[in-house]
Amino acid sequence: MKRSNPNRREAWNQRRNRKRLERHRELKRRSANRGSGFQFERELAERRAALADRRWAREEFRRLVLIRAGHRCERCSSAWELQAHHFLPKSRGGPDLPENGICLCAKCHRGVHDHTVEDWASWIDSRKAGAA
After folding, report:
1. pLDDT tens figures, 55-76
2. d(Cα 120, Cα 109) in Å, to the nearest integer?
3. Which residues pair with 83 in a beta bridge?
4. What are the HNH nuclease domain coordinates in residue numbering (predicted)?
5. For tag attachment on the chain, is the N or C end more exposed, with fewer CB atoms within 10 Å?
């Protein structure tokens, strides 16, 4: 098992924090140019709310998909390391609705994304047909 180097991790955290600080300062600078400190605070609050909504939607999607599947992988019936998979990926405009998701164990989920599951295409088509 490969262990991460603490110095490397610390350097990565410092870079991430530096980028966050730069973004924060840039927002503050833009806000100052507009002449309103309130505008900056409002933008920051809106950004935080949007992040919280996305995080909540992702967790709620997973919870609803797992409940609908009875906390079992819908492909192999395993109960270990369950994950929610989107039929239509979010990157292609797929919604965070339970109808767009399926409960898979980590092994099946990895197989789907690696395209190593031979019967996946026919199996997924039959699932979509059954849902319609």
Report:
1. 777 888 888 889 988 999 988 8
2. 11
3. 104
4. 60-110
5. N
Residue closest to 108 by CA, chosen among 88, 78, 131: 78
Instruction: Measure CA of the first residue to CA of the last residue in the chain; give whole Å.
Output: 45
Q: How sure is the predictor about 121, in pLDDT bands with cuts at 50, 70 and 90?
A: low
* Cβ-based neighbour number of residue 113 at 10 Å: 11
Half-sphere CA count of 119, side-chain side, radius 13 A = 5
Handedness of CA 40, 45, 49, 55 (dihedral sign): positive
